């Protein structure tokens, strides 16, 4: 992508409304635009990062055996009356009426709808286990939307729903998502701690929140420090190995870790000195087992091996991609701007032409751009007629992992400078060596 033809509305001034660094940087880097309170558009740079995050989530959901669908944002109130949640959900639910005055709502979550899909088609335990997920917008009329897309009213959620014949099978489904979440966040370059959590209005008795430790987090959390050094399960993990997965989950739940709602001061005091970590955290994912809470009232039953009908055991598993993006920034930035982990960066590298219009600089810039895009890399080529200083500032602000600087002096020797955004390390390479390095 040539920057001269891209849409990157950078802000020079610090936006006054931004209270935390990720919100400030997302606005300054032209990633998002607020359309009304807690409702955002994603501009091209932001959209690229969001899609990288979604791709990783999708990849790991699929690896764990979940199957992607797409359910609508607008739901009929009838389903929620069946489960009993239409009245319970309260003012966070945006309620609307269609032209026939039928009550509708903008979905804050999809347990009811997916249970309806399940009961319409699945009759036998032989069709289980089943896990269906989608990545779709949700709406919750939050009392205090704030921090940009970190707590917005309209936000994207990946929500998966598992269906099993009994509690043991449902625990295996839960464990699959637990391990998938460990892998998902690790691939995004962030370290998360699974913490015992309250099940809230969804109900049930087995639940973990996946928390990124960050000073600006809204949750107060308590955990054993060693979690931060635990090794994340590899890509070769066998998700069908029931005992193997249980072993991983047992390890990742063996030490103290709880959000403030579940915190037990006495138990925490027993953690050895020096290992107690009390911090603030950002909830980026949340998994629940809730048994037959929805299947019972909504009549989602399957025939078991005993020839009798059983209400299906369910769990739900959420990740908020539009919250994950600012959470990554909270964990990875410096004074100059964002520092993207390579796996979620909007571009793999940027080429900075210090002197657009100079024949040698343009020639080398074009050669690099053609060769690297040809090699399948996502390249942002700053070919604009701008001061070099402004181009460096833009590149640092938007946080692309590698910068290749083409300047009149070094190109006279056939060389370019390669800079790593995270370490600041610089190296001179010939144009050819730079192409080889990144192809
Ligand atoms: P919170 O405690 O922050 O209000 P929640 O517990 O209500 O979140 P869940 O119902 O567990 O949220 O939804 C699953 C995931 O959806 C959360 O872990 C989070 O990543 C994301 N999410 C929830 N609410 C929002 C929001 N208002 N803005 C952005 N993402 C959200
Ligand atoms: Mg909430
Ligand atoms: Mg919560
Ligand atoms: Mg939650």
TrEMBL record:
Protein's recorded name: Proline--tRNA ligase
Entry's Gene Ontology cellular component terms: cytosol
Subcellular location: Cytoplasm
Catalytic activity: tRNA(Pro) + L-proline + ATP = L-prolyl-tRNA(Pro) + AMP + diphosphate
Cross-referenced Gene3D superfamilies: Anticodon-binding domain (3.40.50.800), Bira Bifunctional Protein, Domain 2 (3.30.930.10)
Principal location class: cytoplasm
Family: Belongs to the class-II aminoacyl-tRNA synthetase family. ProS type 2 subfamily.
């Amino acid at each position: 992508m040539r920057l001269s033809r891209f849409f990157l509305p950078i802000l020079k001034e610090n936006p006054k409304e931004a209270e935390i660094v990720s919100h400030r940087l997302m606005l300054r880097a032209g990633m998002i635009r607020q359309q009304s309170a807690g409702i955002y558009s994603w501009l091209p740079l932001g959209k690229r990062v969001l899609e990288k995050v979604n791709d990783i989530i999708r990849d790991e959901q699929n690896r764990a055996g979940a199957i992607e669908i797409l359910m609508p944002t607008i739901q009929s109130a009838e389903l929620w009356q069946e489960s009993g949640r239409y009245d319970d959900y309260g003012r966070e639910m945006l309620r609307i009426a269609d032209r026939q005055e039928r009550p509708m709502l903008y979905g804050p979550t999809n347990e009811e709808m997916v249970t309806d899909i399940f009961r319409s088609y699945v009759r036998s335990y032989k069709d289980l286990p089943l896990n269906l997920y989608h990545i779709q917008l949700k709406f919750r009329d939050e009392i205090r939307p704030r921090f940009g897309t970190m707590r917005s009213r309209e936000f994207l959620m990946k929500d998966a729903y598992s269906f099993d014949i009994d509690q043991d099978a449902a625990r295996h489904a839960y464990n699959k998502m637990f391990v998938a979440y460990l892998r998902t966040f690790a691939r995004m370059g962030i370290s998360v701690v699974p913490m015992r959590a309250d099940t809230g209005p969804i109900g049930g008795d087995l639940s973990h929140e996946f928390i990124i430790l960050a000073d600006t987090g809204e949750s107060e959390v308590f955990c054993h420090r060693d979690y931060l050094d635990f090794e994340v399960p590899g890509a070769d993990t066998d998700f069908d190995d029931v005992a193997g997965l249980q072993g991983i989950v047992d390890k990742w739940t063996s030490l103290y870790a709880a959000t403030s709602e579940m915190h037990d001061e006495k138990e925490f005091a027993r953690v050895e000195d020096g290992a107690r970590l009390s911090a603030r955290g950002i909830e980026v994912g949340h998994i629940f087992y809730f048994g037959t809470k929805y299947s019972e009232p909504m009549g989602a039953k399957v025939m078991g091996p005993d020839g009798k009908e059983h209400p299906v055991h369910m769990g739900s598993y959420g990740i908020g991609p539009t919250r994950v993006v600012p959470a990554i920034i909270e964990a990875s930035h410096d004074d100059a701007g964002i520092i993207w982990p390579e796996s979620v960066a909007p571009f793999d590298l940027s080429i900075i032409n210090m002197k657009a219009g100079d024949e040698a600089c343009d020639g080398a810039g074009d050669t690099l751009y053609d060769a690297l895009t040809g090699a399948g890399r996502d390249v942002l080529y700053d070919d604009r007629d701008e001061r070099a200083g402004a181009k460096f500032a833009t590149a640092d602000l938007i946080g692309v992992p590698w910068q290749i600087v083409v300047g009149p002096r070094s190109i006279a020797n056939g060389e370019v400078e390669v800079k790593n955004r995270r370490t600041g390390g610089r190296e001179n390479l010939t144009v050819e060596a730079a192409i080889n390095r990144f192809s």
